[in-house]
């Protein structure tokens, strides 16, 4: 089995078990103040890391290209409360434009 | 139909459809990351939690190891555990089978719908209808996105490359606003995560910097009652 399939299947099973755990374990285990604290803030740290890794890196290098233009446009659209799909379309258009202009 | 019930159904179907359409972006991003349409579909059908799905393909697409990819997906999946705890008193899933089925649809959107419903009966309805609508739409649009992206040429590929980071930004954005508790702390943690990930990029294998960015959670400080400020 390829590494990709292994990752897909293991992560899928793991994410399901995390959901099931919430419905199965005593609430007191999860409602520890520090557990709640960590869980509340994990998405912010990880999603921000993914924004910069996807937007600014290629392998082990930091690269500036059309993706950064896409991020800037997306940030503006999000600030103006544009819907998700519009944000993504605008970011894609910005990326394509930079690709066409810069080559 | 009583107004409460009609309103609950409308909200659940509306949210399910709106968020479900976002599956196009996931399918396309999965293709760009090198996954085939079956792998994308298994993620949407079995994992069925958007942020973790995007994280897994994001790390794999960046050339990361399976371990780093799985780690990122699981870390983002922990919040569903907390949602489950909040949903138990509302949904009261009885029996092993019903609990196993309910668990599959415990995500951001269904939790928000159930918690916003006016009473327990409506919470169950909102969870079920919202979950079903979102599940079906999300899986269908995943296939559309994956097949569509596979047919793209050079410029469209560049567009897709720009869509993926923007998708993560769109997932992150609402957490930094006033609708979330402690937005200033969320922003500090997000900034910390971004700095850690960028600083580590030249030195660690691809994907590892994403999982490592979780140390930025320490910037949130202790649970509230212990915070001096």
From TrEMBL, chain A:
The keyword Transmembrane is assigned to this record: yes
* InterPro entries, sorted: Brnchd-chn_aa_trnsp_AzlD
TM annotation in the entry: 34-56, 68-101
Which key words tag this protein in UniProt? Membrane, Transmembrane, Transmembrane helix
Q: What is this protein called?
A: Branched-subunit amino acid transport protein AzlD
Automatic annotation (TrEMBL), chain B:
Pfam families recorded: AzlC (PF03591)
Instruction: Report the domain of life of the source organism.
Output: Bacteria
Q: What's its membrane topology?
A: Multi-pass membrane protein
| GO process annotations (BP) | L-valine transmembrane transport
Membrane spanning segments where?
12-34, 54-76, 125-152, 158-177, 189-220
Gene Ontology cellular component annotations, sorted alphabetically: plasma membrane
Which keywords appear in this protein's UniProt record, sorted alphabetically?
Cell membrane, Membrane, Transmembrane, Transmembrane helix, Transport
List localization entries: Cell membrane
The protein's predominant localisation is membrane
The family this protein is said to belong to = Belongs to the AzlC family.
Name of the protein described by the UniProt record: Putative branched-subunit amino acid permease
Organism (species): Blastococcus xanthinilyticus
């Amino acid at each position: 089995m390829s590494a990709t399939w292994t990752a897909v299947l293991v992560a899928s099973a793991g994410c399901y078990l995390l959901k099931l755990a919430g419905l199965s374990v005593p609430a007191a285990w999860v409602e520890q103040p520090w557990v709640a604290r960590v869980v509340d803030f994990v998405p912010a740290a990880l999603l921000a890391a993914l924004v910069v890794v996807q937007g600014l890196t290629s392998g082990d290098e930091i690269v500036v290209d059309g993706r950064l233009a896409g991020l800037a446009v997306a940030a503006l659209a999000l600030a103006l409360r544009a819907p998700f799909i519009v944000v993504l379309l605008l970011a894609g258009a910005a990326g394509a434009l930079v690709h066409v202009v810069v080559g | 139909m009583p107004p409460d019930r009609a309103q609950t159904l409308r909200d659940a179907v509306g949210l399910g459809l709106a968020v479900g359409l976002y599956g196009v972006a996931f399918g396309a991003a999965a293709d760009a990351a090198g996954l085939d349409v079956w792998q994308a579909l298994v993620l949407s059908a079995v994992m069925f939690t958007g942020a973790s799905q995007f994280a897994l393909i994001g790390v794999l697409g960046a050339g990361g190891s399976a371990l780093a990819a799985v780690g990122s997906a699981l870390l983002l999946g922990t919040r569903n555990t907390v949602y489950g705890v909040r949903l138990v008193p509302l949904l009261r899933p009885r029996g092993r089978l019903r609990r196993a089925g309910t668990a599959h649809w415990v995500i951001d959107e269904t939790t928000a719908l159930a918690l916003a419903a006016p009473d327990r009966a409506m919470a169950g309805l909102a969870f079920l209808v919202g979950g079903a609508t979102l599940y079906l739409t999300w899986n269908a649009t995943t296939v559309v996105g994956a097949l569509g992206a596979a047919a793209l040429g050079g410029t469209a590929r560049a567009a897709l490359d720009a869509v993926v980071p923007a998708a993560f930004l769109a997932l992150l954005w609402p957490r930094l606003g006033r609708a979330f508790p402690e937005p200033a702390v969320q922003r500090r943690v997000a900034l910390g995560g971004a700095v850690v990930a960028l600083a580590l990029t030249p030195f660690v294998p691809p994907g590892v910097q994403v999982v490592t960015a979780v140390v930025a959670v320490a910037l949130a400080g202790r649970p509230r009652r212990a915070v001096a400020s």
